[in-house]
Amino acid sequence: MVKFLLVSVVVVSLISLVVASCSNNDQKTSTLDSGVAITYTVWGRKECPNNSSLVYSGSVGGSYYAHSGAAADYLCEYDSYFIPNADGHDVPCAVCRRKRVSTVLMIPGKDTCYQGWNIEYYGYLNAHDYRFSAAASYVCMHVHPEFRRGGRHNYEGKLFHPVIGSCGSLPCPPYVNGYPLTCVVCSK
């Protein structure tokens, strides 16, 4: 409860600061957004797009795919080389920081951003196979994924499977039955 109270006090303070700076007629521009930045993860690559800086790169990890009740999220684990993908190689990831934007959004089913938004990267929507017991989040795997040559043992940790479109649950067109869904990561 205390954490929520502290956050709300900070938000109220920031709102007061924004209102005060907006009501000042002598000040034409606000410098509040100069320090604004967001972070996001590029799945399947070890580098960030040109407009972003690398916070760290690592390997994808997560819960065992068949454990019921396992954590749903994929993790970008710093300097971790022990959870290989299905063909025995590690999937890299990069945690990126983008300055002067306040929002990052992954849009499933598209490979371009809406007008006024910036593309960070695009690729294919991935999650666990529907037959697996463990839950998984949807992530946008880079269109040109890299793989780290790693250990020979397949631990069957957090696995990536493309999300395939199915007409009936999705409108066709624009979707194509039996075809992997695209995705794009956008910022603004």
From TrEMBL:
Keyword entries, A-Z: Signal
Sections of the chain in a coiled coil: none
Entry's transmembrane regions: none
Source species, domain of life: Eukaryota
Leader peptide range in chain numbering: 1-20
GO (cellular component) term, any one: extracellular space
InterPro entries xrefs: Ca-dependent_lectin
Species assigned in the record: Mytilus edulis
UniProt protein name: Short-chain collagen C4-like
Lineage: Eukaryota, Metazoa, Spiralia, Lophotrochozoa, Mollusca
